Amino acid sequence: MNQNLITESNEIAHAGVVIEHLSKSFGSNLVLDDISITVKPGSVTALIGPSGSGKSTLLRCINLLETPDGGTVTVGSQVVTAGRRIPERELLALRRQVGMVFQSFNLFPHFSVLRNVAFPQERILGRSRAEAEERALTLLERVGLKDKAHHHPAQCSGGQQQRIAIVRALALSPRVMLFDEPTSALDPEVGVEVLAVMRELADAGMTMIVVTHEMQFAREVSDHLVVMADGHIVEEGDPAGIMAEPQEERTRRFLNAVL
Ligand code: ADP
Ligand code: MG
């Protein structure tokens, strides 16, 4: 695969993500406790930690699938402060800037692959059907799935479905991509295809936050590693450095479990 297969570098408008003092509870369960993370434009941050540590909630707070209780999230120049009602227009602008890929793909099962990728462009960007489908086909071709355009998601393998989900997000030209354990539901040999697409995106300069247990990917692709446990940041820094010499017992325990 040649470089910039997914996204030409000049297609990407870089945006950073700055999370400051973010907090979130579900009832009496404090899930995120004063989280601050800076993701530089064009960089990749890997987020790791045991199940239940708040990783998914953190990602969901960035595009406001969850409403934070306290703190601030800044994407590019757009600032979202907890406690202030977000006007619909701002919410849409934020969602346009931030693409998200889930563990379970979340494709529309009753739509063809082509419609899956075209429909959000029509709804969110107001593109014509012809224009949206043309872009969808271009992107599907770049990930080697053009021949699946008229299939339904159920007729595609898990790895293909996840690449379609990535393409669907990319079709909206996001400035930031969030990945929540994108390969956890996949067999390892299929996960590799998805990780290859993500690696290309990173090489093309996309700002990414990736929740993953794929330590090789984290070490080779991410610029920054954040270790979470129980709603806290346990440790953060250079990925290879932390993996070679974790400073915290919680990190050591987690790495022992996954490496
Ligand atoms: P992770 O992704 O690191 O496994 P999550 O962010 O999914 O962690 O969950 C963190 C904690 O928040 C868990 O205790 C989970 O049960 C709780 N939680 C997550 N989403 C909700 C929700 N919608 N309602 C209530 N509790 C939730
Ligand atoms: Mg999760």
UniProtKB/TrEMBL annotation:
Report if keyword Metal-binding is assigned.
no
List GO molecular-function terms, semicolon-separated.
ABC-type amino acid transporter activity; ATP binding; ATP hydrolysis activity
Pfam families, alphabetically?
ABC_tran (PF00005)
Localization, UniProt:
Cell membrane
Give the ABC transporter domain ranges: 17-255
- List the SUPFAM superfamilies: P-loop containing nucleoside triphosphate hydrolases
Keyword annotations of the record: Amino-acid transport, ATP-binding, Cell membrane, Membrane, Nucleotide-binding, Transport
Superkingdom, according to UniProt? Bacteria
Q: Name one GO cellular component term.
A: plasma membrane
Q: Which PROSITE patterns match?
A: ABC_TRANSPORTER_1 (PS00211), ABC_TRANSPORTER_2 (PS50893)
Q: How does it sit in the membrane?
A: Peripheral membrane protein
Under SMART domains, the record lists: AAA
Q: Which family does it belong to?
A: Belongs to the ABC transporter superfamily.
- Recorded protein name is Arginine transport ATP-binding protein ArtM
